[in-house]
Amino acid sequence: MLSLLGLETYQLQKLSLQDSLQISSDSMKNWAPQVPKDLPWNFLRKLQALNAEARNTTMVLDVPPDARPVEKESQMEEEIIYWDTADDISADIYSFSELPTPDTPVNPLDLLCALLLSSDSFLQQEIVVKMSLCQFALPLILPDSENHYHTFLLWAMRGIVRTWWSQPPRGVGSFREDSVVLFRAPAFAFVRMEVSSNSKSQLLNAVLSPGHRQRDCFWHRDLNLGTNPREIADGLVEISWFLPSGREDLDIFPEPVAFLNLRGDIGSHWLQFKLLTEISSAVFILTDNISKKEYKLLYSMKGSATKYYFILSPYRGKRNTNLRFLNKLIPVLKMDHSHVLVKVSSTDSASFVRRIRSIVAHVARSPCRRLSLEEMANAARKLGLKVDEDCEECQRAKDRMERITRKIKDLDAYRRDELRLQGDPWRKAAQVEKELCQVQWAGDPPEKHRAELRHRLLELRMQQNGHDPAWGVQEFITGVSSPSLGEKQYFLRWMEWGLARVAQPRLRQPPETILTLRPKHCGAVDFSEALWPEPLGVEHFLREMGQFYEAESCLVEAGKLPAGQRRFAHFPGLALELLLRGLPLELIDGSTLSTPLRWVTGLLKELHIRLERRSRLVVLSALGVAGTGKSTLLNTMFGLRFATGRGCGPRGAFMQLITVAESFSQDLGCDHILVIDSGGLIGGALTAAGERFELEASLATLIMGLSNVTVVSLAETRDIPPAILHAFLRLEKTGHMPNYQFVYQNLHDVSASGPKPRERRQLLDQPSDVSRAAAQMEKQGDGIRTLADLAFCDPERQHIWHIPGLWHGVPPMAAVSLGYSEAIFELKRCLLENIRNGLSNQNKNIQQLIELVRRL
């Protein structure tokens, strides 16, 4: 199977997350797979885009128009070459008849198992997180029968955080948010014994589907390719949860409930079945026949605390034999006759589903087993299953994270005592640097004033440099300095989750939606006060490293510290490693809303050294009011990891690096794409000309000035942030205008159609108070009245995009809508096409970008 899918080369050196995110020529095509080797990459790309059809493994055979069906010999010859068996014919050739041939569709579950077996831990985690957003059932136990071990995927699940509202209906107290590996819920397992005329997966989907809308959470026999035989996926255990929305008309159950599905027969997968009986509140066994062998296996479960239910199709089975064995099992498994359900073709499906739901609800209400995934993993270990988290690198990284987070009792006190260079010292230094920059551009400022500012800055930097990194920061530095790349990545993930766990009591307020979809405007910030509203995150530790580097660099530049005595010169190199492995790094500091220039340029210099000949860059940025879905848009488009949700989110601007495949870089005209997410920098309301607004406009100018391509995310058709209008005006004076795309995100209505050309013209031509005020503040009078005047906007050239609503249904059980995924792909294709055709500003190398950062 691995050979068929082209994955055999990834068994020693596993497929990585960075491999899957590379930009190639295929990134611009809405292509259909033609041979089995296309399937893994097609699945990964669709999953990255949250496409609800990612599991469809249908192949479109590329047959020439003049090909004739009678040419069997040539087809046979091609197949032999494909299998690489032309020179090695042996007894193994007979096994090929049992496997899919290159033109036979592959079962989607086989594809999933093969891909997970070929992926490293971090790509496995990404696959599972994206599957969760698509509301697909998730792999919990991954079978590998050929190597005789099965893996419980605890690490792969750690990245999933779900939210729900408990009943009574929505309110502040009913909102819950937690990692799926930590919260406890009753679990219900559905298994098959020998043959069953009833489909477990279809039944589970019906139980999980509210009303008449069928959800295909579990892949089943009636879906496309669902009847294709499974080759390697038998023994797979999948899990899915029902999570309540707080609406009684929609909620099937009033609390979270887990559902488990074993693929294959319990007789052939006894270890998995044994585990399910130890972690489930109840087990539903679907069968047509109870044989003597299965009877003995079930009899061995005597004394189990799990409740058992049988779902039979008696007309297809041996009725008398089934009754005889059932009567013997009833006292052994502590059942009664209500635990035996009969479903035949004439049974009303809706009433049968209601009966299953009532059983589940009854068991969940009564005292029953409730385990978290962590506790389930402990049970798996005792039975001899492998748990993916148990590798040494992962455990060492976890131990280091726990040593750091164990000391965080009070967030404010920890910031004050451990992150000493931030807060007041950094804010004062940033203000002095800003004034120093302003006087340098003011013509001929008094030399005395300039000297005073330099002296004050030097004093502040000397105060910062007088400190040593606190114990927690030193532990963090040791963690990111690990020579093991895997341990370094594990440590960062553990830190993200550990710090989020510490901050969780502060984050209990319910968001208006699950991901960042609706504006939650951050109020104006008082810059006379310390800015610590954001939860503690990895970025704060990196920010502290950046300040040590900034202070030391400032003293070296002033001749107050010999270059040979530097202690922190290697810090940019450590941070660069994290950027190259997919961690977003701050470009604009979220605490002071300023750019740590020496730190950022140090990072870019390290990047230039590392990339050597492949240093051509395109900078792509996303701007917009916090809460308009721009971070979700970037993540969906490129598979990135920008923070989403949680109110205003991180306030700084973050950057991530995407590699362009070498085979495509010449065509695209660049080797890498640097993506900048403006976070929560931009406010939505037009404020008076003051420090807050001036700062927003400056930051928007900086980000757009660095960019070749800018996506402006709008929540409403006229919701164009005034700071961004000012940035356009300022950049227009310089002649530097990025290629721009305005994205209007319809945050609620999935079915709404995109704006027609006439509506686009109205959007561009509609004069607004914002544009008039912006023009007046930039001393351009009434010359610029509309967006079309401002940005040379041609309404026929797709500068305005309409993105349908993200969700199909009501969260938390809603899946991402297919319309959203397809619209994001079209936008991505357009952006890459513009880059390739040179419609963006001239591409930069890293040296040019460093100079541009300095000037801006």
TrEMBL record:
It is found in: Cytoplasm; Nucleus. Keywords: Cell cycle, Coiled coil, Cytoplasm, GTP-binding, Nucleotide-binding, Nucleus, Phosphoprotein. It comes from the Eukaryota. It holds the Pfam family URGCP. PROSITE patterns: G_VLIG. Residues 614-854 form the VLIG-type G domain. GO terms for cellular component: cytoplasm; nucleus. Its main location: cytoplasm. Residues 387-414 form a coiled coil. One of its GO terms (molecular function) is GTP binding. Belongs to the TRAFAC class dynamin-like GTPase superfamily. Very large inducible GTPase (VLIG) family. This is Up-regulator of cell proliferation. It comes from Equus asinus.
